[in-house]
Backbone:
């Protein structure tokens, strides 16, 4: 079943000028990972230093494999360079059926 991952990030306001290039660099590896079906970065209208990376994965297992790789020396990214606080990740793979 498809998994949607939200990575809620609080960015250092003093580093916002380098965020687009850095996210493009970091997320290229995410996009290329097997099972990734797409991603985007959305910006809080009230706070440009608050963004959410929205990832779509074919399965939660695909995301789990990717997340494990990010915790290896080969998978470490430069994302920490622009963070004001640790990111908060939420994985959504269950669904509530709607009848409309």
Residues:
């Amino acid at each position: 079943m498809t998994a949607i991952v939200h990575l809620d990030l609080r960015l250092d306001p003093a580093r916002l000028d380098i965020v687009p290039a850095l996210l493009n660099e970091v997320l290229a590896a995410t996009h290329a990972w097997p099972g990734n079906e797409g991603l985007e970065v959305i910006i809080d209208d009230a706070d440009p230093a608050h963004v959410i990376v929205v990832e779509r994965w074919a399965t939660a297992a695909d995301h789990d494999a990717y997340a494990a790789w990010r915790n290896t020396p080969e998978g470490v990214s430069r994302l920490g360079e622009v963070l004001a606080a640790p990111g908060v990740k939420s994985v959504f793979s269950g669904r509530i059926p709607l009848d409309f």
